Amino acid sequence: MDLKRLAGALAEHRRTAALLALVTTFAGVALLLDRPKGTVLEWFGPLLLAVGGGVFAYTVWPPPASPTQVRKSVASRFLGIVTLQGRLLPIFPAIGLGLILADLGYNVLLSATPALQTEDIIVLLAAAMLLLYGLIPERFASERDFAFIFFLALNGILVVPLLLARAYYADFERSVDLYSWIALAPQTGGLLNILGVANSVHPVSGSAAPGLTFRPQHLSVEVTVVITTACSGIYSFGIFASAFIAFVSTESETLTRKTWALLAIGLLAAYAANVLRMVVIVLVGYYTDTPASDLQNMLVAHSYLGWLIFLGWVTLFWGILLRWMPRSTSALPALKQTSRNVKSLCSICGASLSPVAPASQCRCGVFYHKACFASEGQCRACGRVTLS
To answer: 256 and 271, same structural domain?
Structure first.
């Protein structure tokens, strides 16, 4: 398939293309922040991020809009307050540069290693967003606000708590595994006990992370899994939660009860998927590892299966969300209208189409009175400014 036909297929099935792009982008971000070291996927993240981001940008690329057409969302109003109604925007590049210098200085002066870790990458991505914020045209305000809220939430979930904990303990090399102790290991152990896998959660000598000890069916010795922050799935949860918060805030004009319920369901379901991820990894070791495999099955599950579970969860949830959200609030163009009843009505005024009132069909399949389209200025379904 050549590029022209591929672009046509993406335009024809924008909602499906957007879902595939979201999943690909999530996969790229997850691999970029939490690389499965020593595997073929280690350096695959940037490629997936570029491909997914490019396709997603194409599917939601907005038409030229006048200032009066810009919808005020929760995100835009929040950013208006944060930036003092835009007065702080001119110093965003300086703040971004300051973040870069602060992160590099932290690595050199306080961190155990100057190498860029996951938290460093998150901070640098936020700094890049600050540097580029003022260069993004206003007609792309929704996409710009989404990216800004995403990186802001990602730092708030994954970076700020870590820095506060290290400052509290006055140890800037400390690995803080509070999440694993409170919100992951006990729940994983409890669910495994319900499933018939006897286990115990306990401290591990020389580590701040909890250990989960169990005995695989085909082994005569107990196995202890140390659930550190890096392998706890908190990065995957942070990515999903940040994107979900950014999506809902940029697509909602007010924080209604329905919006809060949507946020709560999304975050709780993401947390449940993270616990399920750890349970499945332990179950693989419990049922399949033998003296010959030497826990390799569980290690492979840790490297690949957890990532695949995360992507499967993201695909399912975003697929339901994109189909369930009302089209009036969705950033994605409406699906192609194909029913005979819809074709007999103007998609702007709702009146019947007849030979008396000249009408035309947009390339996406929607019909309009020519006069209605001229007054609207663009197709409501796909955003085209011309019908031909």
So the answer is: yes
